[in-house]
Amino acid sequence: MHMTEFELQVLGTGGGASQVYDGLTSSSFMLLQNKQPVCLVDLGLGVGREVIQSFGRFPKDIVITHNHSDHAGDLPVVLRVEQAKGRKCRVICQQQIAQRLQQHRLAEHLEQIAAEDLAEWLTPPQQMRTALNEHLAIEFFQGRHSELSFAFILYYEDRALLAYTGDSTMESELYRTLSQADTFIIDARPDSNAWHASFSEVESWLKPGCYVIGHGLNNEQIELYPHLPLLKQGQKIPLLFK
To answer: Residue 45 domain-assigned?
Structure first.
């Protein structure tokens, strides 16, 4: 029997203004199945270029957690180019996020093509596990952020393979739900604010298989926190079953 292997490659760790002012690729990941890119998680500013440089092409599936520029900023360009090439992407997001993306993020194309026609759309309501294909499924959970944002769990044959908070404050109930996954990625920053978790707030949730994406930190700044499992651009994480 052929063994299915999954990895997650970190494409960027940048925050809201990091790409424009500091040149950091926005926070994003690529899911690899047997070394092949199969699903992109978030497509913020700078991520599109990173995907082309790293893989030469976009996967069909793109998960979007919310409409902020550092998570969806490159989406209009990528969807239009891929659609024009005859290979529509499939955007996977919670249904309210889809409405915001279609109405606001993709408005620049509305004189030429309807947002619904730029891509295929898979837009389940929150907390409804939805199949992506024969083996993978996704379920969205609302976080608390300055823009409506959704965390998710990705399942492989009913096993919680990967969870990601997206942008959110530290919410105990949300974290408890997500922490069931074999690999759990938390978005946090050094200091707490009204819309993001802080490093100190998430430390008690850290366990084997748990990682932190340091919102807006470059690789040199990451070295200042050796006690935290902070992700770096280019890092690959094997997604291991517990």
So the answer is: yes
